[in-house]
Specification:
This is TetR/AcrR family transcriptional regulator. By secondary structure, the chain is mostly helical. The chain is built from eleven helices and no strands. The chain has two domains: 57 residues, Arc Repressor Mutant, subunit A (Orthogonal Bundle); 138 residues. The relative contact order is 0.10.
Amino acid sequence: MLTDAKSSRTKPAGEGGEAAPRRRRMVPADREQMIVAAARRYFADYGLTGSTTELAKRMGITQPLLYRYFPTKDALIARVFESLFPQDKSPEWERLLEDASIPMRERLKTFYKEFSHHVFTYEHVRLFLFSGLSKFEYNTRYYELLTKRLFHRIALGLRQHVAAGGSAGRAGPVSDAELELVQSLHAAIYHVGFRRWVHTPGLSGDIDGLIEFKVDCFLDGVAATMQHLPPE
């Protein structure tokens, strides 16, 4: 029995024999953001020694496609760490820390509570830890950024706080000893993030209340401490 050649052809998929719509290609900028987000989670899970081959497999893309956006693993990791610092919030935080019309105690509590909401994430805390244990030096770059944009402003605010309490003030450029004092506060607060995402059992409960407690403990002793700092 002869059959019509047209009727023997397989009809295209889709309702009524119509061709299925083509999948839209992802915009390059969106694809890059997707890769960075997936890489953040992957390296937070497995450390910075994780392979880009496995990352591409987890994403369902080819490794050549990944390398089209990031030609080396180091370039991808650099972009991941760049994405960890909330650039959009930094100017707002800088203005807050410089606002002498707000008591320093309130400035620090507001800043560190907002900072913790953006930074105390599974990915940020674990990547920061893995970076410190690897050949990558992103922690150093990150602290340089924090020192330039935030720590100097906190140190100047502490001078205002101490002077407002009647103690002798300091002048001139911010000293290394003052920056070390600021880092002692920052380390105490950042440790909350480590307790939450690294230590066992994890920390839960009122994180904001814990941050306020740490700021109060620090400020209640900072005036006496600054009197014993080395001369400028």
